[in-house]
Every structure is written in C-alpha cells, then in structure tokens.
Design a protein that fits this description.
Layout (H helix, E strand, L loop, with lengths): L23 H20 L10 E6 L5 H12 L3 E5 L12 H11 L2 E5 L3 H10 L4 E3 L7 H15 L6 E5 L4 H13 L2 E5 L8 H7 L3 E4 L2 H5 L4 E4 L11 H7 L7 H6 L5 E4 L11 H4 L6 H20 L2
Parallel strand pairs: 1-2, 1-3, 3-4, 5-6, 5-8, 6-7, 8-9
Helix pairs in contact: 1-5, 1-12, 2-12, 3-4, 5-6, 5-12, 6-7
Bound molecules: phosphoric acid mono(formamide)ester (CP) and norvaline.
Length: about 300
C-alpha cells in the first residue's frame, strides 16, 4: 500500500490505525519532528498549534503512558484531551461504535482508541469525520513504535540494515515491530515459543524482513537491539500460568545481552514484570533505554498529532 491509499475515500480523513498507514518517508519525518519537538519542550519553548482543539480518548483497556502522553501532549499544544472509559460512557452500555464515532467526531477534532478487536478501531475510523489514532489493539501498537524508533535513532543513529531481536510473545507489539522492520528496512529476529508465533498475515506481509525461531540465543547473537514485552497481554490474564510455563526460557537475561553486539540496546514498552520476561539486572542496567523510550511516547505522539491535525 502506498501513502495515497491511506486517506479514507469517503471522508478524506487521514487515520493512524497501524504503522503502514504511513509511508517510510512519513515515518522518518515524524521521528525527526519528534526529536525537534522534544528539544523545544526541554528548552521550555511554548508552541501551541492545537489551541482550542480537542482529542477524545476512548480507553477500553488500562493505560498509564498512552493516556498521560496524549493528555500532556494536547495540553502542551494548547488543546485539551478528554478521557472516556466504558465504565462511564454509553459505549460501555452498548451504544454502537458507528453512532459513537459520528457523535464524538462532531465535537472533537481527533479521536484516540485503545480497545481489544482491531476491527473496532477500524469501524470507529470508518464512521469518524476526524482522524482516529490507534492507542493499542489486540493486533498492533503503532504509537509505541514511533517512540521506539525515535529512541533508537537518538541513541545509535540509523536503524536501516541493523538487526533487532524480538524475544517472547508474537503479540501486538511484535506485529508492529514487523511492520517497522519492513518500513525502515531492518532485520527482525523473532524468538518465540512454539504456538506463540505472530499472526500469519503479518508473517506473510513482512516475510522478507523477519526470521522466526525458537532458539533465543541464536536470535540474540550479534543483535543491535533486543526488545521484549509481557508474556500475557491485557485480556490474556487468565492464561498467565500457562504462559509462564511456555515462556520460561524466554527471559531477557544478562547472558543473552552478552550475545548481542557490545553497543546493543534493550527496550520494553512497559509495564514490565522483572523476573518474568526480563531480569531486573537487564531492565535496570546500562544497556536499557526504557525510560527514554517511555518519555518519547510524549514527543512522538505530539509529532503525530501535528501531522494529522495541522499539516
Ligand atoms: N506502553 C504502553 O502503551 O503503556 P500503557 O499501557 O501504560 O499506556
Ligand atoms: N502487549 C501488551 C502491551 C502493553 C502496552 C498488551 O497488549 O497488554
């Protein structure tokens, strides 16, 4: 798909539901703009391109970083964000997504949604007259990849041609890493237990850039970046025990980090479970950039909001 296909043909609205809603050039431009916006913010420069603009945020799952980064970003841009949870909106009492989309988009300038089925975010976008941003679905987490790729660039420069290793579940984060590998042209090793591989449609789409294995040591050898995520994602809480057993050999440890290149980084979208998917020594160690990565959610999403609402 190229960039010209990314606009809804009926509404002419540009959404950000997955990374490939951006062209590779747009992805790179967003990252460099995020770096500029970060410098401006750190200098204390006031920049309010979204004065009087409103972002309505629907959260059907928990969040710390996504909620606070969007809310802070809108405030810094001179606008406002509204937090909507199913507990206290009519969405939680069964009001159809299509109706909610029409109503919310008649009042707000942008919608953000964190939900379970990816199709729900797509339906929201289909009926919204304003841009819809995906703040995580069961399938993908594209906003996190904007921040992760910004962090890699800031710390180590160009990622094209580098080797990234994903350790653990073939989940929403893994799928977004696969699409990032395709767009930014890096090699992605995916080390996951049998039965926890990424979905076939993502494998088919990104096959030129990925390699899937159960051999975690081989996957980490000579890597430039090692990334992991929780063993049980939101909505999979009941599988926790089964998953703990299946993922037992898939913890990112110092021994694994030693197999990677000397200047390899460690990333995790957070929240993390020390002693499960990553040892405390690694996540709190020198190669870990998880705090920079978390802060970059703010700057990268400000670049995204500016891209969707101002440009
Ligand atoms: N990484 C991430 O999306 O964090 P939250 O679940 O806290 O938003
Ligand atoms: N894979 C995790 C990511 C949390 C930010 C989840 O979906 O719960």
């Amino acid at each position: 798909m190229n960039a010209s296909n990314k606009t809804d043909p009926v509404t002419k609205v540009r959404h950000f539901l997955t990374l490939t809603d951006l062209s590779a050039d747009e992805f790179r431009q967003l990252i460099s703009r995020a770096i500029e916006l970060k410098a401006m913010q750190h200098r204390g420069e006031i920049y309010e391109p979204l004065k009087n603009k409103v972002l309505a945020m629907i959260f059907e799952k928990s969040s710390t970083r996504t909620r606070v980064s969007f809310e802070a970003g809108m405030a810094q841009f001179g606008g406002h964000a509204i937090f909507l949870s199913p507990r206290d909106t009519q969405l939680g009492r069964g009001e159809p997504i299509e109706d909610s989309a029409r109503v919310l988009s008649s009042m707000a300038d942008c919608l953000m949604v964190r939900t379970f089925e990816h199709g729900k975010a797509e339906l929201l976008a289909q009926y919204s007259s304003v841009p819809v941003i995906n703040g995580l679905t069961d399938d993908v987490h594209p906003c996190q990849l904007l921040a992760d790729m910004q962090t890699y660039l800031e710390q180590r420069g160009e990622i094209k041609g580098k080797t990234v290793t994903w350790v653990g579940d073939g989940n929403n984060m893994c799928h977004s890493y696969m699409r990032a590998a395709k767009l930014l042209e890096f090699k992605l090793n995916i080390a996951c237990p049998e039965g926890f591989e990424p979905q076939q449609k993502f494998i088919d789409e990104c096959s030129d850039h990925i390699e899937i294995t159960t051999d975690v040591s081989a996957a980490c050898t000579s890597s430039d970046l090692i990334v992991t995520d929780v063993w049980a994602s939101m909505g999979q809480e009941e599988e926790q025990k089964v998953r703990e057993a299946a993922f037992n050999d898939f913890q990112v440890t110092s021994e694994l980090m030693k197999l990677a290149n000397d200047d390899a980084l460690f990333m995790h979208c957070l929240p993390a479970h020390r002693g499960e998917e990553v040892s405390a020594e690694v996540i709190d160690g020198e190669q870990s950039v998880v705090w920079e990565e978390a802060e970059n959610r703010l700057h990268a999403q400000k670049a995204l909001l500016e891209f969707l609402l101002v440009n």
